[in-house]
# Entry
Amino acid sequence: MLKLRGAFTALITPMKDNGEVDYDAWRKLINFQIDAGIDGLVPLGTTGETPTLDEDEEEKLIRIAVEEVKGRVPLIIGTGSNSTRHMVLYTQRAKNLEADAALVVTPYYNKPNDEGLIRHFQAAAAVGLPVVVYNIAARTGRNISAPLMEKISRIPGIIGVKEASGDIVQIGDMINDVAEKRRAEGAPFSVLSGDDSFTLPLLALGGDGLISVVSNLVPDKVAALVRTGLSGNFEDARKLHYKLLPFMKAAFIETNPIPIKTAMTWAGLPGGSVRLPLGTLDPKNEAPLRTAMRQIGITYIHNEEQKDG
# Structure
């Protein structure tokens, strides 16, 4: 069974100015990430603007990702939906296209009860592709508590959780009351942070890593933070954390992925526009974002820094 550990990037979907997916830029982004030492890639999540992608666009993005990755790192495809039937179809598609795992978000808007959640993830795992649960109540309206996650973790094929509750107590419970029990039984279960700024606390509590937004821009720096923390060197990990923290904050100054795509475009990396209903970065947030980029040593193209004056 796949064991996930390290720094994984929740990939943006590069787009042209006309809003079309930029597939050439997608290839470049994937190789940029792997060459920089990232441990895995997570396309078609929220950061990838999946709610606005057509199914043929999603399939092409997956096919290209599989071609470019060539098994070098785990490829975890976002297959979530608030329709269990649709989620199963997306998960089956990911399996057919030879992804390594699926990231399945808590069904949003429906607010399912406990039985519904358990059965939803049973249906996901029954496809036969390893499944990571994505717990993010701020976007879905439904939190998965540690006791409920403990039940879900016992479903064969559920291999971990992307924990984005923002609750450090719950994160600790996920590690101590869920993951440690599975590990003691010889079953892998990874707890990965879904919030960049919670990476260091999660590692200190015994977690396994991060699915990151910030690593779209600086995969090498995020990978270094995670590896240093996993090695137990928390003195150096703290230094890396505080170095990255201003940009971790700035990357969420507006709705993700607006700031990160803007920063990537400024830095000359594949980024591009966002699709409606997301809009462009508010001009008042440009200077703080550029300042945070400077603090992590990122330079610009097109003289973007002149806008500060």
Remarks:
- The two ends are 54 Å apart (CA to CA).
- The first helix runs from residue 23 to 35.
